[in-house]
Amino acid sequence: MPELVSDWRNRLVHEVRRKAIHLSGLSVPLGLILLGRSFTAWALALVLAISLVLEGQRLQGRISLPEVREHEKTRVASYIYYMAGCLLTVLLLPKMIAIVAILFLALGDTVSGLVGSILKNCDVRSSPAPAAEAAAAGASSAARTLSWRVKPLPVLAATFLACLFIGILTASFTGLAWPVYLCGAAGAAFADGVAVLVRGRGLDDNFTIPVLSGALMSSVASILAA
């Protein structure tokens, strides 16, 4: 029992440290509000370019960066996908929808990570597949190529409710109708909680959360405006 408590505490502390960095993404919606789309997009592009250079150095073993997960030591780290997803969202989506979509990433995904740190089987993108899943995947070449895994229901529910709450709290500012942010919250929860894996690898949720939720909100807003 003490070992379980210690393991849970260590995982929670590690996740809190990672999500503290994650919350720096709140500067993007703040930049959109105060400085506008063009300045925010250029600033994001510059930071992403610098980060890509640093990431190349890290992958070559020349530098080390804090809070990189074990599975990211030999592949591109999640903060690159985070900035790329934010940049694409800022460039392609309406301003208010982009703000909410990035809040879903910065805050909703933080809730997901904290809840997931105290539950098992939440690392659906990097952990080895369970034996039963691996056996099922071995049934055919198609299964070996394409598979999907889902986080526990409490994590999905927590992410959805957190994002829905964000939509409600920001609605008076963004002017988005409830069906818009409701669908966005569902999209964010899906992007976070469902990993579609191709040959054992899936798109990073730091990229898919703002892009998918933002695209859904844009589509619903267009339908309502028609």
Tell me the radius of gyration.
Answer: 18 Å
Please tell me the overall pLDDT: 83
Distance between the termini: 58 Å
- List the domain count as a whole number: 1
Element-level helix/strand string: HHHHHHHEHHEEH
Strand content: 5-15%
The counted number of beta strands is 3
Largest sheet: 3 strands, antiparallel
Name the structural class. mainly alpha
- The assembly state of the depicted protein chains is single chain
Q: What overall form do the CA principal axes indicate? A: globular
Task: Please work out how many helical segments DSSP would assign.
Answer: 10
Strand order of the largest sheet: 1-2-3
Q: Helical content, roughly?
A: over 70%
Low-confidence stretches: 130-143
Question: Which features does this protein show?
Answer:
single chain, 226 residues, mainly alpha, 3-stranded antiparallel sheet
Care to describe what's here?
This protein is mainly alpha-helical. It has one domain. The protein is built from ten helices and three strands; from the N terminus they run αααααααβααββα. The chain has a three-stranded antiparallel beta sheet. A hairpin with a 2-residue loop joins β2 and β3. α1 packs antiparallel against α5, α2 runs antiparallel to α3 and α4 packs parallel to α10. The radius of gyration is 18 Å and the shape is globular. The relative contact order is 0.13. About 6% of the residues have low confidence.
